[in-house]
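dude i think i finally got it to work??
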Amino acid sequence: MSTLTNTAAPENGASVTDTTFYPVPVFHFKVTIGDHEGVFTEVSGLNASVDVIEYRHGMSKGQVYKMPGITNLEDVTLKKGVFKTDLHLYEWFATSNMQTAERRDITVSLLDEASEPVMTWQITNCFVKGFTAPDLNASSNEMAVESVELAHEGITIVS
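look at this
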């Protein structure tokens, strides 16, 4: 039987005040789409789950066996502020036509206080399945935010 341990716990007399022992905040990250590094306010949907297949053979007396089935990938959503001359996301969305779409790989890196990657997700073969323009409201002073919803074929953590 394996045991779970806190791999971030200080060992060999290390100081508990050392910043390597604290969880990384989520607000410092970078997103790269192909060769284009974008400035995004939010990334969501870096999720995957596995269907469970239940199996009971003919000789069992009620015993159900569970096995992993198909992996389901959630769509990834990217949100960013609207800039006057930046139509990058909309132009990518415009390439999605009946049975064809421009596919790109995306890298999302969670950064530490020195802007070095702590964890990096590679999202492969993405295409834009939805584009959302900002909501406009004359009584609001919020920044304009657009978003894209991406279908993809896989997420891997590379660091």
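The two ends are 27 Å apart (CA to CA).
im so relieved honestly
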